Amino acid sequence: MRRSSACTALLFGLTAAFAGQAAFAQVLYLPTERQTTGRRVRSAFKETASPAGSWTVEVRRGKTQVALGVVVSPKGLVLTKLSQVRPGGGRPAQLASTKDSSAPAALKCLLPGGKLADATIVATDPETDLALLKVDVDGLKSTEWGKDFDPRLGRWVVTPSTGGVVSTVGIVSAQSRKIPAEKVSGVLGVQLDREGGTARIMQVFDDSGAKAAGLKPGDLITRCDDNEIRDGISLITRLRQMKPGEEVTLGVRREEKTETLKVTLTHPFGVFLSQFAQQNRMGTELSERTDGYEEVFSHDGHVDPDECGGPLLDLNGRVIGINIARAGRTETLALPVSAVEKAIERLQAQVKAPSTNVSTEGKAN
């Protein structure tokens, strides 16, 4: 009798537990329209974002959006994100000119009012990853910067797009701080042939991306993404530009056959850090540059890499920063106004006294 009562109690407890889990799952689920990028949520902030349509700019390479920007001078100066607009920035496969696949498409700005104008990079500030573009249009309305915003945790922020449309909303999730440059590169987890100089694999390490992808000793790597690999040095040089958690597509010659394998790069210091890096990217395209900033704060609004360079607003519609990087699955970095204004001063000084270090496309000579 006691056992029967105990079983009944146990079953009741399990049923209640499962019911609680189901109820909990229902509480967590939100319809798309009620998420921060959803229509109903965005519509609640439309009056906040509307004025930003007067000075928010869409930056394109050819027909592809690569960034947003803001007007900082009525004489046609636009501030935007450097690493997205320089040649090779953005999404390279989509940005090539139709006449010459090796040349980048022309840089253009979709201005307030709908005019599409040619643009050139006239100044760069690598410290903040900002650039000044010049369009031959006068009479543009300049951005008005908010001066006294305190990026305390939990404060609402709004990201507008062109036309003053709300792109996303979020809350401040980390206060202003320095983010040092991250110098750790992703690794395949293999040992290459040192004597022959080729990119032939001699050993595949356990718990590595190479092992998981099926690479084997004796495989010869001939391509890495769109790059031809002629020797071990060219492969290592390419991989040093990539971070743990990123995926590469390798062309592999195995005996007489050529195969294509996708490999997720791992962290050189261990499996846990590799998994963390991959999870931080999961389902999200991150910005090319996410570190090396002297002062940034974070919010959880979903800003894609090609939406960086644009304004971030407080609930009063004041510009309190520039979205500078998509840094994680739930993190966007923003430069505070104080850092942006200092960068603008440095950029405008370059325009007044042009340097041979900057070409019209912003490349070092």
Automatic annotation (TrEMBL):
Q: Which GO terms describe its molecular function?
A: peptidase activity
Position of the signal peptide:
1-25
Report if keyword Protease is assigned.
Answer: yes
Alphabetically ordered keywords of this record:
Hydrolase, Protease, Signal
UniProt organism field: Caulifigura coniformis
Write down the InterPro entries for this protein, in alphabetical order.
Answer: PDZ (IPR001478), PDZ_sf (IPR036034), Peptidase_S1_PA (IPR009003), Peptidase_S1_PA_chymotrypsin (IPR043504)
Q: What is this protein called?
A: Serine endoprotease
An example of a Pfam family matching this protein is Trypsin_2
Q: Which SUPFAM superfamilies match?
A: PDZ domain-like, Trypsin-like serine proteases
- A single GO BP: proteolysis
- Which residues belong to any copy of the PDZ domain? 186-256
At the top level, the lineage of the source is: Bacteria
Does Signal appear among the keywords? yes
Family of the protein in this entry = Belongs to the peptidase S1C family.
Its organism's taxonomic lineage begins at: Bacteria, Pseudomonadati, Planctomycetota, Planctomycetia, Planctomycetales
